[in-house]
Amino acid sequence: MNTATRKAKGKRLQKYICNLILKVFPSLSEKDVTSIRMGRPGEDVQLSNIAKKFFPYSIECKNQERMQYLWSAYEQAMSNAKGLEPIVALKINQKKPLILVDAEYFINLHANISILKNI
What we know:
By secondary structure, the protein is mainly alpha-helical. 47% of the residues lie in helices and 10% in strands. It has a two-stranded antiparallel sheet with strand order 1-2. It has a two-stranded antiparallel sheet with strand order 3-4. The chain is globular, with a radius of gyration of 16 Å.
């Protein structure tokens, strides 16, 4: 795969995440949630100060085939979920454990928490 194709794959994922955040938080505008050009240092999705109040996360996007095992682990979690939200706990030597969840679920979960905090 050439460099342009790899960058295009990454850009599509960044745009998907931006659009998902904008859909879940309709009071934000495209100026608040921006996909950053490939090769630039820092976060892949840049949030304005207002957006960070709604969604206080630093977003790094990776659209790579080398992580293929994550999808098989997630599919296994889905098949075992029986009505619960599937998650995958990940760990490698000398690194903190991570949790893998569906992007839409995670962003909607945070939106629901934000709503409860504002009551």
